[in-house]
Amino acid sequence: MGRDRDAVRPSTRLNAHPATIAAWTLGIALPVAFIGVFFAWPVATILARGLFPSGALDLAGIVEVLSRPRTIRIIGFTVGLAAAATAITLLLGMPAAYALSRLRFRGRGVLRAAVLVPFVLPTVVVGIAFRTLFRGTPLDGSVLAILAALVFFNVAVVVRTVGVSWESLDPRQEEAARVLGAGPVRVFVTITLRRLGPSVAAAASIVFLFCSTAFGTVLVLGGAQYSTIETEIWLLTTQFLDLRAASVLSITQLLVVVALLVVTARVRGRTTFQRRSFATRRPRRADRPVVIVTFLVAVALVIPLGALLRRSLQVGDDWGLGNYLALATTGSRNALAISPWTALGNSLGFAAAATGIAMLLGLVTSVLLSRRPRSPSARRGLDLLDGALMLPLGVSAVTVGFGFLITLNAPPLDLRASPILVPIAQALVATPLVVRTLLPVLRSVGSRMREAAATLGAAPWRVILTIDLGVAARAALAATGLAFTVALGEFGATTFLSRPSNATLPVVIYRLIGLPGGDNAGMAIAASVVLAALTVAVVALIERLRIDSAGAF
Amino acid sequence: MSSAGLQLRDVTVEFDGKRAVDAVTLEIPAGEVFALIGPSGSGKSSLLRAIAGLEPCTGDIRWDDESVLKIPVHRRGFVLMFQDGQLFPHLDVAGNVGYSLKVSGHRDPARVEQLLALVGLAGFGARRVTELSGGEQQRVALARSLAATPRLLLLDEPLSSIDRELRERLAGDLHDILHDAGVTTIVVTHDHEEAAVIADRIGILEAGRLVQVGSLTELRAHPVDDRVARFLS
Amino acid sequence: MHHSTHRVLASAAALAASILVLVGCAPASNAPVTLTLVTHDSFALSEGTLDQFTQATGIRVQVQAAGDAGELVNKLVLTKDSPLGDVVYGIDNTFASRAASGGVLEPYVSADVTDAEGQYLLPAGSGGEYLTPIDSGDVCVNVDHEWFAQAGIPEPKTLNDLIDPTYQGLLVVEAANSSSPGLAFLLATIAAYGDTGWQGYWASLVANGVKIDASWSDAYEVDFSGPSSSGDRPLVVSYASSPPFEVPEGGTVAPTGALLDTCFRQTEYAGVIAGTAHPVEAKELVDFLHSTTVQNDIPDNMYVFPVNPDAVLPEAWAKFAERATNPYNLDPARIDANREKWIAEWAAIATP
Fold first, then answer.
1. Strands C87-92 and C256-272
2. Fewer CB within 10 Å: C terminus or N terminus of chain B?
3. pLDDT exceeds 50 at position A9
4. Same domain, C305 and C336
5. Whole-prediction pTM value?
6. Cβ separation of C214 and A224 shorter than 8 Å?
7. Cβ neighbours of residue A337 under 8 Å, at least 6 residues apart?
8. Mutation target vs A (from B15, B16, B103; most A CBs, 10 A cutoff)
């Protein structure tokens, strides 16, 4: 086919109109400035303190840190834990991804919700749920408990990412192979898996990213025995102020994250974005094991939450709603500065602000990233921006928080005491998820559809409004919900930045479990149930909108 | 000298130093339906895109003796209809047809209905575009293009995604609709029979150069070279 | 007419002032002084206590929590060039030396400190010139009286008892690298067994089945067998002030108790942050934290003992809370110099 018919030719070149150029410049400047001021600058400054203690690179110090047996052990443990968690997540997630994207059966919607909800649950809630579940068993405080919680979180990533591409695989290829005499296993390995390869690899690297940077889960469940890079950075920074060692570990973590992002981008780049949906079908006999596994996975995912709910209704040796009624109080012996309900109000306020910021940044950035400018350097610039946006997912909240302290310390940016840092930090975490949700949909729009709109008389801004955002409207709604739940549950940065008087619900929950008195623990669990219920409600709302693309990384 | 309609003067389109369109000069009077034919890769679509303003080019493109090169795509009044229609999936049939009216701030449901009737899809307004057959989709795309009351309509292989039998019928319909509407049109196709049905004149493009212009009969009678003769046989 | 103009001007000025404060500019000199009190996360006082300071002096106080004691000190050291606030509360004796040597404090100790508080004062060079004691608490092994009564085993008394096979698998402690009482317990053992002996003691503890949890709540609320927890270990490292909380309403007998021969004393201090723009007012605030107004309010809000001998303890405390008469202690300078080394050694023994 000739050059003139080539559909993937980069196009929608930046029109030379000055207003257009100004708009694009502003569009690029907004996310770049945000990431620069609230992420790159603080993180770079704190890392520089550690690596350039006297102005020159402290190579010997870096080597010393890297040769400590503890450093080596922690890096090894982190990578091993993340690899094991990723493997188990894939193993459990793949059947669920298949059953939920290709089969049609009763209860599929409920199973889907059960599988997808954990991803957005607050880490504190998950930590408490697993501790409640494993209490008194040998699993309590073991590596297996951490593994279980990490898998619990991330099955959703596999189901979403792999499910979306499984949905758009033409089943006739498999059928043809079956007709030609290939067994089901052979068909799966030679045909299905090969075509799913990129999305499986993308899912695996994202799960690995989340597992290797997990903080709250490891801290709550791991006991003292298990340190990961992330918890070690926290320890080295907050307790020892050993910025050199913390910086070395941060850089190590950043390198791993960047490597993962490059791999993900590579495999994502090879995937053609053809968003088709083939009809689902009723399960056959041969599908039975898959459906059963999916069912079991869903049940396993619901059990910890069930344990949490059960415990929340226990008041002393009786059953009742006492723990919930106590949410209007500040806990026994004034454990809190504010009641959990007030904290919930704070959470909603912060999460709304964070969602606003994340959606503004996410929409602007996604629209930018969905364009493929002609100039290779502009394309590379956009790819860089894409990667830079993902980095906050891989940098410890403690590093960012301590960075804030030594950078945002002079007018007009003396924000160290300002509550505005809370939604900003939450938005840093939520924005990449917004972009990952919107971008596949926006990329599916295609330059020629925009060109068609332009020749019909739509100015460039009008094309964005009526075509890009028109097509992505439902995905944008899903992204809004995702950003909101992520902000609602964010713990690491929020606990670092919020004050007792404007604490959020996760922070209050964490404080409640840390204070004496049985009533406080019950309150913490009831508050966790409330937070989980709210999160589930938001997710259910999104699922009702039937947006399957949400979270397709 | 002044003339109504489209004038191309030495229009050249380059990709990475290779000429996709090579110094094409052509005049199409207002109201004419002109077909551009040629083998795959001969530069037909690139020329069409350059006229629409979607590809940078050198030379000059004029309408009613005024250069349009500096006018951005959305103000040229040249509507390009793609081979696969490029219907907007989030809008229904009426939303697609009425898009240009909405964008210009003149919503007009009656006109939308009238255009749907013109392309033989009366009453389809509330349908989702994804539910339509290939032929129906192209009819909607045509109605959508006509709704913008373009000065110039650019059709890029409008019928190639439709099966043969239907294509022959639609080619006849297209001829009638375009002539009834009196809209100046360039239609790109690689099928000279189809070109002859739809258009008044035919231009042949080869390796980016416009090698011959005329009616199909004239072209067949006096092909400029062997390749043209072979292409038309 | 004049009146309303004034009001408009006044509100405009107030608005301008609040904008200035919002963007971080120093308020005009005649505006009331607002001090920022940087504290650890556990800082809490009854509502209105700080208002009494404002009423008496006209100085406003804004509280800024900055993590636990270690994090608090480290943040102060890190932000020395542009201080986080004017007064700090919550530096304890294990971190005092770092704060002092880090140059983050103005030399000031409240003149109201009396000889009776001598036991809480820091040595010169380890923060003695900079820090005013505010409260103190003993970290001790807590014991579940009911469990031992039912099991018919005598309760342990000393650190040495804990490595006796009689108490195999009964103790749960917090990790020294992630928990403040955990570190305090490690320091108690170092004080008890010395630089070369504590490692062997910990090896014996591990051999005797000690469980090491990440946080106080894990240990106390999950693994401890006391009334407010659900675990099965009757010995836990907690505070000497924990037993009063286990007494049921109207109860006369405490179901748990503290082993007073196993305690390490943590004292918390307040000081004036170096570089404050309001040193005079900051000193007034330190004095206020040491006054009985705050001191009486401390036990019920922060679960620690006030240092001021004039302070009045709450009833339950007076009845059930005990204090070690001879707690273990270490020189803050020695703690600061060895903390990381000790924790690393400890981690190698306790968390292999």
1. antiparallel
2. N
3. no
4. no
5. 0.80
6. yes
7. A330, A500, A501, A503, C44
8. B103
